[in-house]
Every structure is written in C-alpha cells, then in structure tokens.
Specification:
alpha/beta, elongated, 7 helices, 9 strands, about 20% strand, 2 domains
Amino acid sequence: MQFNIITIFPEMINDYSRKSILKRGQEGGFISVQAVDLRKHATNKHKSVDDTPYGGGPGMVLQAEPIYNALTSVRAIVRNNIIDKLKKKLSKRKKKTIVLSPRGRLFTQEVAEEFAKLDELTMVCGRYEGIDQRVVDNMIDEEISIGNYVLAGGELAALTITEATARLIPGVLGNPESIIGESHSNDFTAEYPQYTKPIDFKGWKVPDVLLSGHHKKIEEWRKENAK
C-alpha cells in the first residue's frame, strides 16, 4: 500500500516512518511511505505556500495552487510506478485523498480497516489557520479528524492514520495474530489487562487465573476485564 503525505515538514514524516513497524513494512515491500514537500510545489521565488485570508482575520492560510501541484505530482509519480509494474491492474487501483481536519469524520479502528483495503492513501496536512476551502471542495475525497482537539498541523494525525492502517496490511506485523483481539477491533471496547514476569513485583501479583493454564477460564477473565 502506498501512503503519500503532503506537508511543509517532510522531515517529521521521514524521521518517524524510518522506525519500528513502518520501517519494517517498507523494507519488506508491503507498504511505502512518501513525504511530499509542499514548498517544492510553490510557484513563487520565495517558495511560500501560504497567504493572508480574504475577509480578514488572524494567521495565514495554505494556498490551493501548491497543494494542487503537489497532488498532481503525486498522482503522476504513482501512475508511472504502476505502469511499470502493474499495467493490468491500473484501472482497478483503489485510492483515496483526504485532508486532516478537526471538522472531519472521526478516525477509528473501523476507518483504519476501511483504509487498509486501499492501494493508495494520500493525506494533505494543514498548517497555520487552515487550508483554502477550494482544496476541500475540489481536490479531495473527504476530511478526517483524529479527535476533537486542535493540533498545530496535520502531520501527527497523518502519522497516526498511517501507522494504524499500515499495521493491518498483511506482512507488516511480524506476528499476524498481534491484531487479533486488539483494542476496538472486535466486540471488546478495549484490550484486557496484560502481565509479564515477574509474577510478584513489590507484592503486586499476577492474577492466578493467568497462571492456571486453563485457556477457557483465561478467555473468560479477559472478556470480563476488557475495558
């Protein structure tokens, strides 16, 4: 699966995606994470991608043109890669383009599972006071939010979505059973408590049932204690 993240801080994306499961997923060829530097798609000599809002108000707004150019560039790059490797599947490629926004659809595990069925997910990271509305109206499929709060930009949200989605791609996790019974992925509202060695630490002990070897009782305990 291809993840494209359009941002003015590509180093934030690159630093994180070169570690842990995203690194392993890319090394294994199961996913690809591409940070697209929005400033490289600016058309002015200063490489600025923002300007003052029409109608007045504080702060700056990301312009539509550099985002349009970046999206066009990403689609051309991905298309060329597909032509080289997957000519027969070109017309069947499933892809989506989103903007990270606090007013968007709430990102959940269910949405991660939905995104994991895609071949390509492109995310536009906002900054400053927001993004020119013409981007939202004409260039993307939907807005997505990771919660009811405001961040300085969309990079952390994009990385959250990337990791939550990528770990559902077959092959990314070393042990596929890791996602079975996880938080928010089945009837449980959250995961059950987990314990490891030692059995007794400062008088705080592991529940006896987990040491019993009785799988049915352990499963029942886990269901009862999931929060």
